[in-house]
Design a protein that fits this description.
The protein is of the alpha+beta class. The protein has a single domain, classed as Ubiquitin-like (UB roll) (Roll). A five-stranded mixed sheet has the order 2-1-5-3-4, with helices on both faces. About 20% of the residues lie in helices and about 20% in strands.
Length: about 130
Protein backbone atom coordinates (compact mmCIF):
# COMPACT_ATOMS: atom_id res chain seq x y z
CA UNK A 1 0.00 0.00 0.00
CA UNK A 2 1.38 3.40 -0.95
CA UNK A 3 1.69 6.20 1.53
CA UNK A 4 -1.10 8.63 0.77
CA UNK A 5 -0.19 12.07 2.01
CA UNK A 6 -3.08 14.37 2.80
CA UNK A 7 -3.28 18.14 2.96
CA UNK A 8 -3.53 19.16 6.61
CA UNK A 9 -4.19 22.69 7.87
CA UNK A 10 -2.70 23.42 11.28
CA UNK A 11 -2.85 26.63 13.29
CA UNK A 12 0.13 26.65 15.63
CA UNK A 13 1.13 29.56 17.85
CA UNK A 14 -0.97 31.93 15.78
CA UNK A 15 0.51 30.88 12.43
CA UNK A 16 -1.41 28.90 9.83
CA UNK A 17 0.39 26.03 8.10
CA UNK A 18 -0.65 23.89 5.11
CA UNK A 19 1.35 20.66 5.09
CA UNK A 20 1.22 17.25 3.45
CA UNK A 21 1.19 14.43 6.00
CA UNK A 22 0.44 10.75 6.15
CA UNK A 23 -2.83 10.27 8.07
CA UNK A 24 -1.04 8.29 10.79
CA UNK A 25 1.50 11.05 11.68
CA UNK A 26 1.20 12.15 15.29
CA UNK A 27 0.72 15.79 16.16
CA UNK A 28 4.06 15.62 17.97
CA UNK A 29 5.91 14.40 14.88
CA UNK A 30 4.18 17.00 12.71
CA UNK A 31 5.25 19.77 15.09
CA UNK A 32 8.83 18.58 15.47
CA UNK A 33 9.68 17.07 12.09
CA UNK A 34 7.49 18.99 9.65
CA UNK A 35 7.10 22.41 11.29
CA UNK A 36 10.50 22.28 13.05
CA UNK A 37 9.05 23.39 16.38
CA UNK A 38 11.32 21.33 18.60
CA UNK A 39 10.40 22.80 21.98
CA UNK A 40 7.75 20.13 22.44
CA UNK A 41 9.70 17.03 23.42
CA UNK A 42 9.33 13.35 22.67
CA UNK A 43 9.78 11.45 25.91
CA UNK A 44 8.12 8.09 26.39
CA UNK A 45 5.95 8.40 23.24
CA UNK A 46 3.15 6.70 25.22
CA UNK A 47 1.53 9.70 26.92
CA UNK A 48 2.81 8.85 30.38
CA UNK A 49 5.59 11.41 30.90
CA UNK A 50 3.83 14.54 29.59
CA UNK A 51 6.92 15.88 27.78
CA UNK A 52 4.82 16.31 24.63
CA UNK A 53 2.11 18.48 26.21
CA UNK A 54 0.57 21.17 24.03
CA UNK A 55 -2.58 23.26 24.39
CA UNK A 56 -5.42 22.72 21.94
CA UNK A 57 -8.03 25.46 22.26
CA UNK A 58 -6.70 25.93 25.80
CA UNK A 59 -6.95 22.26 26.79
CA UNK A 60 -3.83 20.23 27.57
CA UNK A 61 -3.23 17.16 25.42
CA UNK A 62 -0.40 14.70 24.85
CA UNK A 63 0.70 15.38 21.28
CA UNK A 64 2.32 11.95 20.98
CA UNK A 65 -1.11 10.30 21.30
CA UNK A 66 -2.90 12.61 18.86
CA UNK A 67 -3.03 12.32 15.10
CA UNK A 68 -2.20 15.62 13.42
CA UNK A 69 -5.03 15.23 10.92
CA UNK A 70 -7.53 15.36 13.81
CA UNK A 71 -6.40 18.82 14.90
CA UNK A 72 -7.28 20.95 11.92
CA UNK A 73 -9.24 24.17 12.52
CA UNK A 74 -8.17 24.45 16.18
CA UNK A 75 -5.55 26.62 17.88
CA UNK A 76 -2.48 24.70 19.00
CA UNK A 77 -0.04 26.35 21.41
CA UNK A 78 3.43 24.91 22.00
CA UNK A 79 6.14 26.09 24.37
CA UNK A 80 7.35 28.41 21.59
CA UNK A 81 3.91 30.03 21.56
CA UNK A 82 4.04 31.02 25.22
CA UNK A 83 6.62 33.72 24.51
CA UNK A 84 5.25 37.24 24.36
CA UNK A 85 7.02 39.84 22.20
CA UNK A 86 10.26 37.84 22.28
CA UNK A 87 10.16 37.71 26.09
CA UNK A 88 9.52 34.74 28.32
CA UNK A 89 5.92 34.19 29.36
CA UNK A 90 5.46 35.36 32.98
CA UNK A 91 5.08 31.72 34.04
CA UNK A 92 8.36 30.77 32.36
CA UNK A 93 10.04 33.77 33.97
CA UNK A 94 8.67 32.83 37.40
CA UNK A 95 9.97 29.27 37.03
CA UNK A 96 13.33 30.64 35.99
CA UNK A 97 13.44 33.19 38.83
CA UNK A 98 12.48 30.56 41.38
CA UNK A 99 15.33 28.37 40.17
CA UNK A 100 12.91 25.49 39.66
CA UNK A 101 14.99 22.64 38.35
CA UNK A 102 13.63 19.76 36.38
CA UNK A 103 14.82 17.34 33.80
CA UNK A 104 15.30 19.47 30.70
CA UNK A 105 13.05 17.34 28.57
CA UNK A 106 9.97 18.02 30.72
CA UNK A 107 10.43 21.66 31.77
CA UNK A 108 8.91 23.06 28.53
CA UNK A 109 5.95 20.72 28.92
CA UNK A 110 5.47 21.71 32.56
CA UNK A 111 5.37 25.37 31.49
CA UNK A 112 2.67 24.59 28.91
CA UNK A 113 0.74 22.43 31.40
CA UNK A 114 0.80 25.14 34.07
CA UNK A 115 -0.21 27.78 31.55
CA UNK A 116 -3.23 25.71 30.51
CA UNK A 117 -4.06 24.96 34.12
CA UNK A 118 -3.95 28.66 35.04
CA UNK A 119 -6.18 29.57 32.09
CA UNK A 120 -8.73 26.95 33.11
CA UNK A 121 -9.54 28.88 36.28
CA UNK A 122 -12.04 31.68 35.98
CA UNK A 123 -11.93 33.61 39.20
CA UNK A 124 -12.42 37.15 40.33
CA UNK A 125 -10.48 36.66 43.53
CA UNK A 126 -6.98 37.95 43.78
CA UNK A 127 -4.23 35.41 43.46
CA UNK A 128 -1.88 35.56 46.43
CA UNK A 129 1.76 34.68 46.34
CA UNK A 130 2.97 31.81 48.55
CA UNK A 131 4.68 34.38 50.77
CA UNK A 132 1.31 35.88 51.78
CA UNK A 133 -0.41 32.59 52.51
CA UNK A 134 -0.84 31.56 56.17
Amino acid sequence: MENENRAVSLSVNGTHYEVLLEPRVSLLDALRETLHLTGTKKGCNQGACGACTVLVNGTRINACLALAIQYQDVEIITIEGLRENHHLHPLQQALSNSMVFSVGIVLPARSVQLSGWCKSFKTTSRVRSPKTLP
